């Protein structure tokens, strides 16, 4: 007579964990383990790992026909995390461990041939799923802190041999503590104009493009941007850490409140930057969710690849369409980029002569493309520091001072009733609300019209100019946006393009 049982488990689909019911039937027939239910190659390989791990842990694999069904069959099962629930199902259905052990527990973990159990990618997503459904999560050994998703904690099974006693271990993780940043804006000599632009950028979530010669400090400035941004909220920490957990990356600093900073190399592929692969996994734009995405040497990225950034910038998510459906990866990031003005880097430099032909300069600058440049709120020039100021490195404006202004501006925006940008609103509604919040008088409206005509700004560029001015007014804790605020905002829009 066939002996059957089922075990709760999960698999990943994008950044979401999907519940899986591991059904095991042991009965007469040719000896062996068969796995059905749309498993991928990694899950199929579990047959060999499970067999060896069970024997190494002091249990036996019956000389029977073992059928493992992974339900629902319409969802592809991926990853090695199903090793543990398959082994638990076999042991329970053969009476080697109590059947009751499988009733209120969800298992996930990868087995080694010696019976030890290891953690897998995406445990935070699985923990969130188990918390929503109720139950107890049992994983392999891991250093990941799952307490944000499972406040009551979870249990660890370090080796299958522990099932002889039925005792699980407690995780060896503690609460993530806030860490100090290794960099600070005081390390950057001079560049007061660029620092002010970055402060505005952090206060209002404005995209920034910095153009300047090699060695002018563009990368140094960008890497310090997270140090002046507010800490992540509890909700943001969970959503951001979940993406990093699925990608198999460390997220302790995220749980401590620090925002991610991602700086992909210009040789990155479309799948690496936007997400993809088989199975689809999040790319750099999603790993920068609630943080900063920095594109250094932006013209060196492929033109087609850069244009694909327009969707995540505007919609705050990446949507990948595949044969088995759509995958959605959140990507609400602050875009900061750096570029040289020409291939040699010295076009327009007052001290060094540019050796590039005019056609080469035009081609180089055209790699980014007008539609993408138009989506930057601020475009500034960053020149090289004076040699004398370099010796004063370490005595500049600190990150703490700049962050104080950012936090004060955001607090003032909340007090005056300003709202953060909602991606669910129509573009027309967002623009109307922004203009309403500025409370323009006739003088301010005439000024905007004058600047727009003089610089041939597009409608989108005009709205970005106004948005930056509103943030500058918030930094000054002013209810009204004045000509002074608009004039400063215009300084951070060097031209509609380069």
Give a quick rundown of the structure.
The protein has helices spanning 41-44, 46-56, 83-93, 123-133, 192-204, 218-223, 234-246, 252-255, 270-274, 284-287, 303-307, 310-315, 358-365, 370-373, 387-390, 399-415, 427-438, 442-455, 459-475, 483-491; strands spanning 3-13, 16-27, 32-36, 65-71, 105-108, 110-111, 117-118, 136-139, 155-156, 208-211, 261-262, 275-276, 281-282, 292-295, 317-322, 325-330, 334-339, 378-381. With 498 residues, the chain is α/β, with parallel strands linked by helices. The strands form 6 sheets. Strands 11-14-17-10-18 form a 5-stranded parallel β-sheet.
User: What is the CATH topology assignment of the largest domain?
Assistant: Rossmann fold
Distance between the termini: 77 Å
Instruction: List unreliable stretches of 5+ residues.
Output: 421-425
CATH superfamily of the largest domain: P-loop containing nucleotide triphosphate hydrolases
Beta-strand content bin: 15-25%
User: How large, in whole angstroms, is the Cα Rg?
Assistant: 28 Å
């Amino acid at each position: 007579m066939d002996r059957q049982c089922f075990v709760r488990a999960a698999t990943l689909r994008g950044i979401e964990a999907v519940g899986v019911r591991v059904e095991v039937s042991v009965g007469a027939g040719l000896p062996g383990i068969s796995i059905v239910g749309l498993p991928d190659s990694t899950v199929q390989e579990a047959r060999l790992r499970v067999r060896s791990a069970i024997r190494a842990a002091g249990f036996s694999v019956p000389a029977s026909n073992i059928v493992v069904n992974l339900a629902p069959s319409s969802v592809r099962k991926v990853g090695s995390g199903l090793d543990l629930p398959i082994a638990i199902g076999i042991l329970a259905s053969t009476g080697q461990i109590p059947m009751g052990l499988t009733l209120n527990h969800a298992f996930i973990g990868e087995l080694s041939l010696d019976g030890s159990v290891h953690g897998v990618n995406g445990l935070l997503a699985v923990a969130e799923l188990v918390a929503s459904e109720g139950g107890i999560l049992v994983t392999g050994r891991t250093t990941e802190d799952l307490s944000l998703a499972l406040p009551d904690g979870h249990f660890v099974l370090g080796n299958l041999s522990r099932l002889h006693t039925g005792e699980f271990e407690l995780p060896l993780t503690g609460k993530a503590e806030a860490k100090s940043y290794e960099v600070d804006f005081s390390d950057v000599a001079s560049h007061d104009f660029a620092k002010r632009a970055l402060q505005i950028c952090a206060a209002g979530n404005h995209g920034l493009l910095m153009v300047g010669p090699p060695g002018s400090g563009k990368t140094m400035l960008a890497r310090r941007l997270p140090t002046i941004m507010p800490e992540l909220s509890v909700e943001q920490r969970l959503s951001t850490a979940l993406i990093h957990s699925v990608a198999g990356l460390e997220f302790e600093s995220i749980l401590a409140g620090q925002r991610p900073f991602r700086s992909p190399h210009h040789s990155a592929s479309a799948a690496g930057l936007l997400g993809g692969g088989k199975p689809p996994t999040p790319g750099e734009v999603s790993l920068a969710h609630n943080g900063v995405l920095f594109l250094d040497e932006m013209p060196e990225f492929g033109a087609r690849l850069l244009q694909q950034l327009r969707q995540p910038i505007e919609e705050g998510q990446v949507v990948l369409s595949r044969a088995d459906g759509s995958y959605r990866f959140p990507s609400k990031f602050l875009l900061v980029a750096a570029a040289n003005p020409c291939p040699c880097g010295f076009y327009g430099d007052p001290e060094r002569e540019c050796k590039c032909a005019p056609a080469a300069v035009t081609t180089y600058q055209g790699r980014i493309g007008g539609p993408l440049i138009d989506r930057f709120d601020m475009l500034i020039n960053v020149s090289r520091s004076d040699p004398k100021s370099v010796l004063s490195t370490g005595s500049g404006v600190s990150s703490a001072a700049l962050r104080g202004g950012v936090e004060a501006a955001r607090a003032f925006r909340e007090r005056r009733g300003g709202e953060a940008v909602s991606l669910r609103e129509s573009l027309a509604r967002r623009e109307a609300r922004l203009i309403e919040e500025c409370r323009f008088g006739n003088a301010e409206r005439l000024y905007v019209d004058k600047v727009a005509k003089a610089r041939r700004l597009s409608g989108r560029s005009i709205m970005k100019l106004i948005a930056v001015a509103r943030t500058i007014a918030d930094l000054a804790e002013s209810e009204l946006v004045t000509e002074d605020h608009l004039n400063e905002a215009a300084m951070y829009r060097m031209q509609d393009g380069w």
